[in-house]
Amino acid sequence: MALLLGWRPAGEPGPWLVAVVAVLLAVVAFAAWALALAGAVRAEATLGLANLVYLLLAVGGGVLAGPENYPGLLATVVRALPTAALGESLRNASAGVTDPAYLLVLAIWMLLGLLTARRTFRWIA
Questions:
Q1: Which residue range(s) make up the domain with 63?
Q2: Per-residue pLDDT reduced to its tens digit, 30-42
Q3: Dihedral-angle region of residue 96 (phi above 0 means left; psi in -120 to 50 means alpha; beta otherwise)
Q4: Among 14, 41, 43, 99, which lies 20 to 30 A Cα-Cα from 8?
């Protein structure tokens, strides 16, 4: 959408390619964890629990403020969250910086989510 509105990324393409990969990894990871949640919890509770997880990660997951804004050990925990890894990847891309460590965090969450979803989620007709 941004490209359609006339925005163009500045700088080298490397950081932006990393950002695109980060977004793709995050989409698959979040979808996998959503399916895992839907498979593990009754349908009535899924929506409420999903909203709770969303709010907790939005507020404390390193999305609005980077992990460096959290004290001590909490900063390390936040860095390991997929929301922080995605946020930092996008912030780094906008600054022209590449840090592949965040891609590793997202890949781990994606793989764990896919494995968990495979065990818990079943289609019911």
A1: 13-120
A2: 999 999 999 999 9
A3: left
A4: 99
